[in-house]
């Protein structure tokens, strides 16, 4: 398999240093798992799941690196019934890099490198203000409408999980 193509992301307003954003390698799954675990808010999958994700969904996922270390990730996939829709599964950023535009840079880079997509979907719990702002700002930057509605209710998710609100953004301009 060819090495992932990485592109530099030059300084954005909230990023003080240069990041490199590229598709993940299998070994990046461990760092993604650690970041997800450390957030304390993401639904944590097994380490095995992150390794598989970095292998099987690398083309629709990205990692952000600083100094060679993975400091963030976005996992995604094309919706099987609607392949023009990129579904964002998880966004995670290392605590030391939060609040500096890393998540926004990764989301933009991912959407721009997945060919043939014109919509983005993600689910967010109502109390996750950071993710709500992230997806709303993505829509604003792209001049795209946002449609929101409950996808899965708390009764389906169980164990006190809050409902998941679907954010469907698009059509998205490039």
Automatic annotation (TrEMBL):
GO terms of molecular function: diaminobutyrate acetyltransferase activity
Superkingdom in the source lineage: Bacteria
EC number: 2.3.1.178
Keywords: Acyltransferase, Transferase
Domain called N-acetyltransferase: residue spans: 19-169
Example GO BP: ectoine biosynthetic process
Pathway(s) where this gene product acts: Amine and polyamine biosynthesis; ectoine biosynthesis; L-ectoine from L-aspartate 4-semialdehyde: step 2/3
Pfam family, one: Acetyltransf_1
Record InterPro entries: Acyl_CoA_acyltransferase, Ectoine_EctA, GNAT_dom
Membrane spanning stretches: none
PROSITE patterns listed in its UniProt record: GNAT (PS51186)
Family from the record: Belongs to the acetyltransferase family. EctA subfamily.
Protein name as it appears in the record: L-2,4-diaminobutyric acid acetyltransferase
Species this protein is from: Pseudonocardia cypriaca
Lineage: Bacteria, Bacillati, Actinomycetota, Actinomycetes, Pseudonocardiales
Annotated gene: ectA
